[in-house]
Specification:
14 strands, two-stranded parallel ribbon, DNA polymerase, domain 1, 34% helix, 2 domains, alpha/beta, binds iron/sulfur cluster, TIM Barrel, 10-stranded mixed β-sheet
Length: 354
């Protein structure tokens, strides 16, 4: 049995080449791209401005795998929705939609980049299950399609405005597929999402950050920091033993200098662990004079991690200390705790919600 080409993960140029291989003009490839990503076509047969004979030839060699939603959970706020999606090989992944109606209205899709994760961060549910495999670019796009379909007319009707790679997996460990996804999201004839609205979050893979600095893909970089000493970061995030702070922070500095884009540092406040005055001082020292922003995240509870978050007043006081030291910092809104959809709470096989 021959495997058919998955059209959804192909860049416009690759679709043009496919069209030429099938005896058509290159512009047919761009038409297919628009059908899939701007008009959200569910199958080749509906691409009505392609000649019927071409559609038939295309369907023999290529396909658009269906979106399979296995489960859907809506948070009490009604604005955060988590989907469990089934993949062709029987694996499943989670992704989250966050609708913001106040101030800057936006619909953010939080996407996974891997089935599970090998990084083993101690506060994270995904890391507890290990890594199964990387996702393909098509499976990355599939999540945004499924989440877009959740939006009602009054909520922007299918319009995902922001993408964050903060779901399951370490995106820089699946660099090629994630970058392909990013280019498809950014293409104006497809999703048309500007680079300022696409954020990749890493646990600190230094060679990946250096590659981003060299290649400058259209995205914003966020780094999960969570500790200002190697001693503590080694415990929270095992990747720190491979890429300690004295390598990670200079790599982030170089990224900011080369790209001219600021780096966002994520810092989950954990009661009695990294929430002291000296931690705030250490953070200010580490990031001094860097184009940087610090997101303070009240920790989301994960069963079995043993960690507790801090009260809102303590989080505000921590932010104030950073600001006094000259850092740009804010508390990040954390959504969906009641459906285990907040940061670090996604699992690759949420059988418990089926
Ligand atoms: S926090 Fe991110 S990098 Fe760490 S284990 Fe969880 S998914 Fe992996």
């Amino acid at each position: 049995m021959t495997t058919r080409i998955d059209l959804r993960g192909l860049l416009p140029q690759e679709l043009e080449e496919l069209a030429v291989r099938l005896g058509e003009a290159p512009y047919r490839g761009r038409q297919i791209f628009r059908w899939m990503h701007a008009r959200r076509a569910k199958g080749i047969e509906v691409m009505s401005d392609l000649p019927r004979a071409f559609r038939e030839r295309l369907a023999l060699v290529a396909e658009l795998p269906p979106v399979r939603v296995l489960n859907r959970l809506v948070a009490a706020d009604g604005l955060t929705r988590k989907l469990l999606l089934g993949l062709g090989d029987g694996n499943s992944i989670e992704c989250v939609l966050m609708i913001y109606k106040d101030g800057r209205r936006r619909n953010t899709a939080c996407l996974s980049s891997q089935v599970g994760c090998a990084m083993g961060c101690s506060f994270c549910a995904t890391g507890q299950g290990g890594l199964q495999r990387n996702l393909t670019a098509s499976e990355i796009i599939l999540q945004a399609l499924a989440l877009g379909a959740e939006l009602a007319e009054g909520e922007g009707g299918n319009r995902i405005s922001n993408i964050v790679f903060m779901g399951m997996g370490e995106p820089l460990n699946n660099y090629e597929a994630v970058m392909k996804g990013v280019r498809i999201f950014e293409d104006p004839s497809g999703w048309g999402i500007s680079h300022r609205r696409i954020t990749l979050s890493t646990c600190g893979i230094v060679p990946g950050i250096e590659r981003l600095a060299r290649e400058k893909p259209p995205l914003e970089l966020a780094v999960s920091l969570h500790a200002v000493t190697n001693e503590l970061r080694d415990k929270l995030m095992p990747i720190n033993r491979r890429y300690p702070l004295e390598e990670l922070i200079p790599a982030c500095r170089r990224y900011a200098e080369i790209t001219g884009r600021r780096v966002t540092f994520e810092y989950a406040l954990i009661a009695g662990v990294n929430d002291r005055r000296e931690d705030a001082r250490g953070l200010s020292r580490l990031l001094r004079d860097m184009l940087a922003f610090v997101n303070i995240i009240p920790l989301n509870p994960v069963a079995g991690s043993g960690f507790k978050g801090v009260p809102p007043a303590a989080a505000r006081a921590f932010v104030a200390l950073l600001q006094e030291a000259g850092l740009e910092a804010a508390i990040r809104d954390s959504r969906g705790q009641d459906i285990a959809a907040a940061c670090g709470q996604l699992r690759f096989a949420s059988r418990e919600v089926l």
